[in-house]
From TrEMBL:
InterPro entries: FPG_cat, FPG_N, H2TH_FPG, Ribosomal_uS13-like_H2TH, Znf_DNA_glyclase/AP_lyase, Znf_FPG/IleRS. Residues 248-282 form the FPG-type domain. PANTHER family: FORMAMIDOPYRIMIDINE-DNA GLYCOSYLASE. It holds the Pfam family Fapy_DNA_glyco. Keywords: DNA damage, DNA repair, DNA-binding, Glycosidase, Hydrolase, Lyase, Metal-binding, Multifunctional enzyme, Zinc, Zinc-finger. PROSITE patterns: FPG_CAT (PS51068), ZF_FPG_2 (PS51066). Its cofactor is Zn(2+). The keyword Acetylation does not apply. This is Fpg/Nei family DNA glycosylase. Belongs to the FPG family.
Length: 297
């Protein structure tokens, strides 16, 4: 799933290519992709993109006050095309969910018969969660309206973070992934942040000491900041592989920890899994994998 660093890099990539460009046509191809109907996506046609923003994991393509907001979910992606065929594709069972054609670039030496620039939104698999909204105000998108603060914003101070961790008996892994608490962090980077902070994913957030809160805040800012810098300037098609190669524990079950050499372990859930290093994070004690325990009974 694309998380804050990849979406921020996509924002940079699209800002450079979309700003000042006109929309020729927008065509949804999957029934499930469009979450709003008034205005429809055809209202974007003839408008000019003025800015590309990000809200957590949401991309916000601003076409003069009308926003095309995209959430890529678990298996969605944006594929830039230098030459989209002018004829519309046939809706079908493939991964293509939406196509957007741009008007011709006045500065480009291109024959319109060769196709125009634009992008496809695609989604692999059968569980269709990619979401597109056409709205006048991004705050009208429910997922954006409930977002917590952006963890890389200047106003996201250690004091703000400490306040977010207080109250209740939530485990720190779940809090980091909760978009209403902190925007943009998912399963992968929460694993990475907790490994960098040398903290168990099952630690109760409200029981953390001031030193532990400070260490987690530092790990969060450094981990996300480094991931953004690694991704900056990459083409959209290179971001997935960059994310995978940059991860130290997430997705690396059975491999040696890059810090201490212990074997990275996993806890499985119904629809996800977390990875951690016992020596770095849990005092050498493996965490119970309840899903695997049930299978072994």
């Amino acid at each position: 799933m694309p998380e804050l660093p990849e979406v921020e890099a996509l924002r940079d990539f699209l800002h450079e290519r979309l700003t000042g460009r006109g929309v020729r046509r927008v065509m949804p191809l999957a029934v499930s992709v469009l979450k709003t109907y008034d205005p429809g996506p055809d209202a974007l046609e003839g408008r000019t993109f003025t800015e590309v923003g990000r809200h957590g994991k949401f991309l916000d393509l601003d076409a003069g006050g009308l926003h095309l907001v995209v959430h890529l979910a678990r298996a969605g992606w944006l594929r830039w095309r230098d030459a989209l065929p002018p004829q519309p594709p046939r809706p079908g069972k493939g991964p293509l969910a939406l196509r957007l054609w741009l008007t011709a670039d006045p500065g480009a030496d291109r024959d319109e018969s060769e196709g125009s620039e634009g992008f496809d939104l695609t989604e692999a698999g059968t569980r269709k969660r990619l979401a597109v909204y056409c709205v006048h105000d991004p705050a009208d998108v429910p997922g954006i309206a409930r977002l917590g603060p952006d963890p890389l914003a200047d106003e996201f101070t250690p004091e703000v973070f400490a306040d977010l961790l207080r109250g209740g008996r939530h485990r720190v892994k779940g809090l980091l992934r909760d978009q209403s608490v902190v925007a943009g962090i998912g399963n992968a980077y929460s694993d990475e942040i907790l490994h960098a902070a040398r903290m168990s994913p099952f630690k109760i957030a409200a029981e953390m000491s001031e030193e532990e809160v400070a260490a987690l805040y530092e790990a969060l800012r450094v981990t996300l900041g480094d991931a953004v810098e690694r991704s900056r300037g990459l083409a959209a098609g290179e971001l997935k592989s960059e994310k995978k190669t940059g991860l130290r524990v997430h997705g690396r079950k059975g491999e040696p920890c890059p810090v201490c050499g212990d074997t990275i372990r996993e806890v499985s859930f119904s629809d996800s899994a977390l990875q951690y290093c016992p020596s770095c994070q849990t005092g050498g004690k493996p965490l119970a994998d309840r899903r695997m325990s049930r299978l072994l009974k």
